[in-house]
Design goal:
With 155 residues, the protein is an alpha+beta fold. It is 20% helix and 32% strand. The chain is built from three helices and five strands; from the N terminus they run βαααββββ. The protein has a five-stranded antiparallel beta sheet with strand order 1-3-4-5-2, covered by helices on one side. The protein is elongated and about 55 Å long.
Length: 155
C-alpha cells in the first residue's frame, strides 16, 4: 500500500461505554457530574445520558493514528477543536485523510486532517495531526502503514 495525499486513514470505531467516564472523572479530578450522573445531564437539558470527557474522545483519534502509524510515539503533533458532545451509548468513529507527505530531520511524515464523528450525527472533534511514517535510519522492518513487512498481519 502506498501512502500519499488523499489516502484515507483506517477508521477506528468505538461504542462509548459510560463506566470509564466515572473513572476518568476521578483521575482528572473533574467534579462535573455530567460525566457520571444522568440526572445532572437531564437537569441541564442535554438529554439523559452521561457526557464523555474530551480527553477520552481525543484518545479515540490518537488510537486511530497510533494503530495506523505503528505506535503512539509516531504522533508528532496533534491539534483538535471540540465541536460537540459524545454521550454514553453513542458510536464514535475516528477517521481522517492524508493532506501532505514531507521529509523532516526525523523521517517521512504524513500531515493529516482528522475528525471524530458520532455515527448518524455530526463531527464532534476536528483537527490536524502529523505522524511519523518512516523514521530516518530505521531498521525496524515496518512499512509506512504500520504493517510488518515479513508477515503482513499488522499491529
Amino acid at each position: 500500500m502506498s501512502i500519499g495525499v488523499g489516502t484515507a486513514l483506517p477508521v477506528h470505531e468505538v461504542l462509548v461505554d459510560p463506566r470509564p467516564m466515572k473513572t476518568m472523572a476521578a483521575l482528572l479530578n473533574d467534579p462535573n457530574p455530567i460525566h457520571w450522573d444522568a440526572g445532572a445531564v437531564s437537569a441541564l437539558g442535554m438529554g439523559d445520558r452521561p457526557v464523555n470527557q474530551g480527553p477520552l474522545n481525543m484518545g479515540y483519534l490518537m488510537t486511530m493514528l497510533a494503530r495506523w502509524s505503528g505506535g503512539r510515539d509516531r504522533i508528532l503533533d496533534f491539534r483538535v477543536r471540540f465541536l460537540g458532545n459524545v454521550f454514553a451509548g453513542d458510536r464514535a468513529r475516528a477517521g481522517g485523510t492524508v493532506t501532505g507527505i514531507r521529509t523532516t530531520s526525523q523521517g517521512r511524515v504524513a500531515d493529516c486532517e482528522i475528525a471524530l464523528n458520532v455515527v448518524g450525527g455530526d463531527a464532534v472533534l476536528s483537527g490536524t495531526a502529523c505522524v511519523l511514517l518512516e523514521p530516518i535510519g530505521s531498521d525496524e522492518g515496518r512499512s509506512s502503514h504500520g504493517q510488518d513487512q515479513n508477515d503482513g498481519k499488522g499491529i
